[in-house]
Here is the input.
Amino acid sequence: QVQLVESGGGLVQPGGSLRLSCKVSGFSLDDYAIGWFRQAPGKAREGVSCISSRADIIVDADSTKGRFTISRDMAKSTVYLQMESLNPEDTAVYYCAAERGFMCGLGFWEYDYWGQGTQVTVSS
Here is the structure.
């Protein structure tokens, strides 16, 4: 059974940092790209970052480039999103998703499996 479970969200002050985790089971990261997405109230789901199954392709959204870093730990079957210099515009529910294949992109329609999401709130 394919599962993706996000964790690490919470309340953080502007300028702060958080690290999100996406623990996967039921498939191998060798076969699937993982993407991070976010959705703020009243807004469309937005791709944030993705890492390909071979980890040779990483794509970052312009809005988060230089502040967010995606990485993975194969031994733990976990993909991380390290978020720095957070601002209130980063407030959203963050999701991870899996896409079978060797490529990765930031289109939500490309992904087959989704986690339940974790809330990130940036506020003073």
Remarks:
- The CA atoms of residues 42 and 109 lie 19 Å apart.
- The mean pLDDT is 96.
- The longest strand covers residues 92-100.
- The two ends are 40 Å apart (CA to CA).
